[in-house]
Design goal:
With 197 residues, the protein is an alpha/beta fold. It has a single domain, classed as Metal-dependent hydrolases (TIM Barrel, Alpha-Beta Barrel). It has a 5-stranded parallel sheet with strand order 1-2-3-4-5. Strand 3, helix 4 and strand 4 form a beta-alpha-beta unit.
Length: 197
């Protein structure tokens, strides 16, 4: 879910250990989670974390999976512990294009507080993206690791970018090294100005 090294570097290392133990408890005081001394501004958005719940949603690629980080830990650490107002749950590679865990997390957190970045098959249709949009998706994740079952490559971006732009989505490009250069994508769709939609 949240990178423990990030938490430590930000001075929140006391919050990284409870990620493994927060599965059923939403009360941060009962969990022993101190409130950080840094107060986030109202409306602060945590924009890239994963939910892992292999007991309910088995991994498609277990080699990419992590220890369980269910929605209750997400809520306790990010929303209640760190004080974010909203979160973006990003589809982890371990689930491929099976977005059930990510969208379940969004549903549990509520559309007023959560959105998702999802993955799809390369032949995703505009209707499929609209279904994901209704469930809270606002971005599509592509990877420089190359195409694999349930994983979009950066080469899929030129076809999918206009479909995403029609919905006001962004493309989340996961680039493992600097050697890959993606061609500029033109969509001719005006920006929505970064609003929470």
């Amino acid at each position: 879910m949240v990178c423990n090294s990030f938490l430590a570097a930000a001075g929140f290392d006391q919050l990284s250990a409870p990620l493994q133990s927060a599965s059923g408890n939403r009360d941060t005081k009962a969990m022993g989670l101190p409130r950080p001394t840094v107060v986030l501004p109202e409306g602060a958005v945590e924009c890239h974390s994963h939910v892992y719940d292999p007991d309910r949603f088995p991994f498609l690629d277990p080699a990419l999976g992590e220890a369980p980080h269910p929605v209750s830990a997400y809520r306790a650490v990010l929303l209640e512990g760190l004080g974010f107002s909203r979160v973006v749950v990003v589809q982890p590679g371990a689930y491929g294009a099976d977005n059930r865990c990510t969208l379940d997390a969004v549903a549990q957190l509520g559309l007023e507080r959560a959105r998702a970045v999802v993955a799809t098959a390369a032949d995703a249709t505009a209707e499929h993206l609209r279904e994901l949009h209704r469930a809270g998706a606002r971005g599509l994740r592509l990877s420089s690791r190359g195409a694999a079952p349930g994983r979009l490559s950066l080469d899929d971006a030129p076809r999918l970018a206009p479909l995403c732009a029609d919905l006001g989505w962004h493309l989340a490009l996961q680039i493992r090294d600097g050697s890959y250069q993606i061609p500029l994508i033109r969509t001719d769709v005006p920006s929505r100005g970064g609003r929470w939609t």
